[in-house]
Amino acid sequence: MSRQSSISRRGCGASSVRFTLAEEQLVSLSYRARVAALLGDSPLTSEAVITDVRDLLSHGEEALAFDTMCSWIYEDALPITRQYHARLVALATEMGTPTSVQRLDELLVD
């Protein structure tokens, strides 16, 4: 008989969603893959920053990796497309980290 743990993940709303440990791991893998894809498509050029984000991902720190990536995009005032911005906003919303993408709309190019 398998033992299941239940983990609560609180998003940006007041309610929480309950996940089993296996579901939580799948969600984490999905976030990791999506952050990695966004990193690959990002305008970041600093190898040190890219390495830092990858290291955070390899240690299961998806939210911190995402926030770090977004922070450096903003800090370096790197232009982003509307499509890329929409992908960032969608993932930030899903991960419950909307502050990660605040002000990135200032960097939009047509």
Low-confidence runs: 1-15
Oligomer: single chain
Order of helices and strands: EEHHHEHE
Rounded Rg: 15 Å
Silhouette: globular
N-end to C-end Cα span: 56 Å
Question: Could you give a short account of the major beta sheet?
Answer: 2 strands, antiparallel
What structural category characterises the helix and strand content? alpha+beta
- Helix coverage percent: 55-70%
When the domains are counted, the total is 1
**How many DSSP helices?**
4
In what order do the strands lie side by side in the largest sheet?
1-2
Give structural notes.
This protein has about 110 residues and is α+β, with helices and mostly antiparallel strands. It has one domain. Helices cover about 55% and strands about 15% of the residues. It contains four helices and four strands; from the N terminus they run ββαααβαβ. It has helices at about 20-40, 45-60, 60-75, 80-95, and strands spanning about 5-10, 15-20, 80, 110. The strands form two sheets. It has a two-stranded antiparallel ribbon. A two-stranded parallel sheet has the order 3-4. α4 links the parallel β3 and β4 (about 110). α1 runs antiparallel to α2 (about 45-60) and α1 (about 20-40) packs parallel to α3. The chain is globular. The relative contact order is 0.15. Mean pLDDT is about 85; it is low at about 1-15.
